[in-house]
Amino acid sequence: MAHGVPDHQPALPVDQASVLSLPPSTQAKDFSQRWTVLDSLLCGAFAGAVAKTVIAPLDRTKIIFQVSSKRFSAKEAYRLVYCTYMKDGFFSLWRGNSATMVRVIPYAALQFCSHDQYKRLLGGYYGYQGKALPPLPRFLAGSLAGTTAAMLTYPLDMVRARMAVTPREMYSNVMHVFVRISQEEGFKTLYRGFTPTILGVVPYAGLTFFVYESLKKLHAERTLRSQPHPSERLAFGACAGLIGQSASYPLDVVRRRMQTAGVTGHPHTTVLGTMRAIVQQEGVVRGLYKGLSMNWIKGPVAVAVSLTTFDLTHNLLHKLHQVDHYTH
Predict the structure, then answer these.
(1) DSSP readout, 239-294?
(2) Rounded-to-integer distance, Cα 124 and Cα 143, Å
(3) Among 158, 164, 118, which residue's Cα sits nearest to residue 138?
(4) CA-based nearest residue to 102, from 55, 143, 163, 12
(5) Residues 6 or more apart whose Cβ sits within 8 Å of residue 119
(6) What is the rounded distance in angstroms from the CA atom of residue 167 to the CA atom of residue 187?
(7) How far is residue 202 from each of residues 40, 45, 135, 206, 244, measured CA to CA in Å?
(8) pLDDT tens, position by position, 56-106
(9) Environment class of residue 209 by beta-carbon count within 10 Å: exposed (0-12), middle (13-18) or buried (19+)?
(10) Which residues contact 121 (CB under 8 A, 6 or more apart)?
């Protein structure tokens, strides 16, 4: 009996050590699991709201030119902004922004969140779990994310376009737009322009995320820094926005014409019919690419602000989760 106790005593410290000391890989896995879908949704919503508010006056001006037959120029765009300011006041430049926020907050939240999920799924499928994806899956993750968000929030985009091109007296608020369109034009009108939206969002979202992720990967390989500076993120986002929006711009014009057909008097009901009418009446460059030069200003700014804001808030929340993990 006296000899049985010492035989078992050395095992105690070993068991305690094995329980108390977790391998670094397990700790890292615990930290990554704290980064939840809810965090991704919140960061995406915040990023989208900030970006769209910054460029709202330019966005409204672009939509007005897209849905009219007026020839676009920087001088005419400035004149429109100035006349709107003088007639209706400074905050009229943000008319329709409430509808934009109603749409962009869920859209951006869903897009960024689904992009993270698609990256994880495609990474597991192609054997790149936890690593930078190869080019094709990188493009697919962005395209699928944009398509998912657009499908779930399209009626809100329709409402936003209507509010941007109509006088204040016609629609008083977002719900008023929904009610009037449903009663006067039918519920299906809320999905007018859906086809060019999906056709446009595939190259737009795909190229935007592809270029941004590719530039970050190239930057990490060249500088040996895992995280770029905020100014570098803005530059990467601007390049991504410029390329993505230029590739899908004609379909954006077609989408706006179809969305606003009920108030502009143009009978645009199909993608090819709308595109043919624009080309016949206004030409290819002056019709399908109307306002593109303004988009080269607002588009890169919006995408740069959105992607950078998401990344910075993502990193901030991740650090907060790490601190919370250590303190508890």
Answers:
(1) HHHHHHHHHHHHHHHHHHHHHTHHHH-----SHHHHHHHHHHHH-IIIIITTTHHH
(2) 18
(3) 118
(4) 163
(5) 133, 141
(6) 22
(7) 21, 21, 15, 6, 10
(8) 888 778 777 777 777 777 777 778 888 878 887 887 778 777 777 888 899
(9) buried
(10) none
Q: Which amino acid is at 315?
A: N
pTM, to two decimals:
0.74
3-class SS string, 185-239: CCHHHHHCCHHHHHHHHHHHHHHHHHHHHHHHHHHHHHHCCCCCCHHHHHHHHHH
Say which residue the tokens 């879908």 belong to. 37
Tell me if 216 sits within 8 A of 179, measured CB to CB.
no
Query: How many CA within 13 A on the CB side of residue 5?
Result: 2
Contact 47, 306 (CB under 8 A): yes
Residue with tokens 């006296």: 2
**Token pair listed for 129:** 């779990």
Cα separation, 180 vs 292, whole angstroms: 31
State how far the Cα of 215 lies from the Cα of 221, in Å rounded to an integer.
Answer: 10
Whole-Å CA distances, 255 to 8, 55, 160, 196 = 77, 20, 13, 6
In tens, the pLDDT along 203-220 reads 999 999 999 999 999 999
Residue 245 and residue 299: Cα distance in Å, rounded?
7
Inter-CA distances, 200 with 92, 210, 243, 247, 249, Å:
29, 15, 13, 8, 8
